[in-house]
Amino acid sequence: SQKIEQNSEALNIQEGKTATLTCNYTNYSPAYLQWYRQDPGRGPVFLLLIRENEKEKRKERLKVTFDTTLKQSLFHITASQPADSATYLCALEGGSYIPTFGRGTSLIVHP
Amino acid sequence: DTAVSQTPKYLVTQMGNDKSIKCEQNLGHDTMYWYKQDSKKFLKIMFSYNNKELIINETVPNRFSPKSPDKAHLNLHINSLELGDSAVYFCASSQDPDNEQFFGPGTRLTVL
Asked: How many CB pairs under 8 A join A and B?
């Protein structure tokens, strides 16, 4: 069966460090993968999209990698700040225009 | 200007009632979606509507029906509400199915 796995345990890091979040998937062949941020009581906010022919994408302090062989995406936030604390969701194109989201990983950045 | 808006923000109702949630996007997007986020925060696609083509997640009960009066609106109608329908419902839109989605603020539905 198709699965998207993100660490269910919260990731706690110190301000200034690099946060690395993982998204693993099985039985998908996604044309692209997206990362979103969700704050409590709000809708998800788009961060980055990476396509299957791209290995890496960057936007300011954010970097996403996409390894279709390992079936994994890594999401990095460099020089993390307490304001980066949120839940981060990965989403795959699940075929037939059905976006499929992972359960998300909570990131807590301590000052 | 709000890109994707939903009304109401909160909806409390009794089991068995019929209710609607409205969604509007002012981004000129061609694709709109409805998601359900349960108490465990799992965001699950319910419907995708692109150029008058409706794609339904087969696990969605037929008590749920999307209605699109025009390209900027995708409303969600729910008949015979059940306790398990309590969740936060998000509307979203994108230029096309392969691009980033813009989410609304969500509607918290509580069925008593």
From this structure: 55
